[in-house]
Design goal:
Blueprint: H1 3-61
Length: 62
Amino acid sequence: MSAATAIKEAMERLEEHMGADIEIARAVGAVDFWVRDLIQQAEAAKSEILHLARQMAGGRAS
């Protein structure tokens, strides 16, 4: 095998591994986005629940 062929094959293997790494990074990014969105939804729900609880508590006091 010539040096050029060996280098070409090594570069192809590297590209395959990099491609897999890129796909993994995209998947991790998608999960990260999804988790952050869930956290924001949970925080919004918490705020709404606290708001409603305060309204209910205020209604009982009057």
